[in-house]
């Protein structure tokens, strides 16, 4: 049936899909309008397959049913959906690729909180398994502003608890186990025997699934297959409100894990993932591995795992991610690309075979095995490396710093600040930065001051205004940008990166103190936002 509707506030393409408060999505026709706006931006899907899944957050169940009915009415031949409407982001990417689907929807607001007062989101991924590129998100956004109708089938809800295939009109609905295909892929990439041996030998770990989607995957892979002790996966049942927590694996929201890992009772390895399973937090006994370091260390050691034994084609990092990866690339003579924030920018490089491993400072790491960042993949690669090298995480981290030097790195988030004040801050910085070039500041000289612009080397597209950078002569960097994933006010992110090859054991915030102070002086963050300090420091 065809339902008449009106253009709606579909939001400019963000870092990752459409993200809004649950209460916004609950407005009549809201989810339908967005889904139809996506379908209207696509061509050639008649009779093809669409993959559907979500991270289990509040409203997942409702929107999955809407999406199935709309896929049928719009002429898809088949929907492949995770049991109970569940699929992690990397698992969705894998299923799209493996079954050559036309694309897929992931229902998630990722690391944002869930529940009736929390956030909801819809991401569309294309046939390569990756987030819709900017061209497509622009077209979707344009459709949201002119939509007048959507197509949806009538009828009862599909029973998503039962694995198997049923028909909805001319369309097949195949309900699959969310874990099986993902686990098969992981077993192909990594030396499960070597990891299992290490675990048998007494290696202990804790994985915190944060009551989000990775629970079922971690139970199956870590506990049941690799043999970690029962209970080593905690918060392993996906809950609609994530147990009231923020499913963001950082030092604030995964504090219990951090505290454990710094205590005498620490297991050998600690890790966590986010709402939709694409992020990873890695903490060794007594050592937190910053995500920027983690991608560099994984790139340096990846050849120890089966899938990467032949070496890497190249690597990439998002612009605000520390330059630790660049040092590994230089030593190994690999191309190293610098992209804007957001996984969609890695897609072309991966598809073109120019890179094998890539990552973001926001705890996203991944490879060419799918087209999304992948939390459990990073955990398994770390375990594979630890098992092969027979060293602790701490020994690997410290050895890496001795070999490559250390990039002290931190991100300061000012969450949900007044949007107008944040926009003004950025506008004033943009007006000011040409004057900063050549300035003596924070004990150094500013060599470059600009607004990051990316020229995609594969398709030639240009993305402007991706963050203001102050780059010092010694390579230290201060970066300011506004988040594209928040749902209330604005979130200002300040990133600080400083290379050091002598003093390797400093405390991060003190090592960066001069740069941090200068960053605030230039942008007047505290006075303009009215905040005494950042909401989250990573
Ligand atoms: C944040 C991170 C970015 C990440 C994005 C989506 O974006 O900084 O690195 O790709 O979230 O991650 P922003 O625009 O808020 O800085 V996920 O795990 O929320 O899909
Ligand atoms: Co995520």
Can you give a write-up of this model?
It is a single chain. The chain has 538 residues and is an alpha/beta fold. The protein folds into three domains: 2-177, Alpha-D-Glucose-1,6-Bisphosphate, Chain A, domain 3; 182-404, Alpha-D-Glucose-1,6-Bisphosphate, Chain A, domain 3, CATH 3.40.120.10; 406-537, 2-Layer Sandwich (TATA-Binding Protein). 33% of the residues lie in helices and 24% in strands. It is built from 18 helices and 27 strands. It has a seven-stranded mixed beta sheet, sandwiched between helices. The protein has a seven-stranded antiparallel beta sheet with strand order 20-21-24-25-26-19-27. Strand 17 and strand 18 form a beta hairpin. Helix 2 (30-40) crosses helix 3 (60-74), helix 7 packs across helix 13 (375-389) and helix 10 runs parallel beside helix 11 (324-332). The radius of gyration is 23 Å and the shape is globular. The model has no long low-confidence stretch (mean pLDDT 95). The structure holds alpha-D-glucose-1-phosphate-6-vanadate (VG1) and cobalt (II) ion. Cobalt (II) ion is lined by residues 110-111, 274-276, 278-279. Alpha-D-glucose-1-phosphate-6-vanadate (VG1) binds next to loops.
Structural class: alpha/beta
CATH topology of the largest domain: Alpha-D-Glucose-1,6-Bisphosphate, Chain A, domain 3
Helix residue percentage? 25-40%
Low-confidence regions: none
Mean of the pLDDT scores?
95
CATH superfamily of the largest domain: Alpha-D-Glucose-1,6-Bisphosphate, subunit A, domain 3
**How many beta-strand elements?**
27
Question: How many separate helices?
Answer: 18
Major pleated sheet: 7 strands, mixed
- Tell me, what's the shape? globular
Task: Count structural domains.
Answer: 3
Strand order, largest beta sheet: 2-6-5-3-4-9-8
CATH architecture of the largest domain: 3-Layer(aba) Sandwich
As a whole number of angstroms, the C-alpha radius of gyration is 23 Å
Which molecules are bound besides the chains? Answer: alpha-D-glucose-1-phosphate-6-vanadate, cobalt (II) ion
- CATH C-level class of the largest domain is Alpha Beta
Strand content: 15-25%
